[in-house]
Every structure is written in structure tokens, then in C-alpha cells.
Amino acid sequence: MQNVIAGDEITSQKNILEVYNFPEMLEDYLFELEIRNYSLNTIKTYKSIINNFYKYLLNEKEIHDERMILRSFKHYIGFLKRDKKVSQNYI
User: Fold this and answer.
1) What are residue 10's DSSP bridge partners?
2) Helices (H), the chain
3) Rounded CA gap, 3 and 26, in Å?
């Protein structure tokens, strides 16, 4: 948790991963895909991709709002291209 000084007051901001239950949100999303008749292979692939992004986020610091999630996502895409050498189709 990060302390932020606002005037003379110190406030705490929780990491967004502490606020939202991402594993539960993922399961809800995958269930939605199943209801919409996505193939099991597609669901499996999406689950893997989202789990890998979540693991990446766990190593990120100071993710307190949607803007920081978007920034981390862009960094993750760069990581996939540069370090993992994944195809453009995967991205």
C-alpha cells in the first residue's frame, strides 16, 4: 500500500489488485464466454492469456487506478513483443 501526502494529511492508496478479486473476475468472464458458446479451445486460450497478464501485474508496483492498469497493459504488450517474441496475431 502506498502513502500519498495530500496537503498535511497522509492517505493510503490500495493497489487495485488488493481491491478487486481478479481470479474471481476471470472465472466470471470465462463463464460468460461459455454461455455465449465460445469453443473450449478459445476459452482455454483466453484464460491462459489473462492469467499471464495477471501474473505480470502482480509484479507491478503502484497500480491504483484504470490509467495505471492501461499503462501496465502497454508495458506488458512491449514485454511480449520484445522479450517473449510472440507473434502479432497473439497480441
Assistant:
1) 5
2) 16-19, 22-35, 40-58, 66-82
3) 29
Task: Kindly give, in sequence order, each residue whose CB lies less than 8 Å from that of residue 86, ignoring residues fewer than 6 positions away.
Answer: 80
DSSP symbol at 86: -
Weakest mean pLDDT among 7-11, 12-16, 75-79: 7-11
Which residues 6+ apart lie within 8 Å of 73 measured at CB?
A: 53
d(CA 15, CA 63): 5
The pTM for the full model equals 0.72
Q: What is the mean pLDDT of residues 11-32?
A: 84
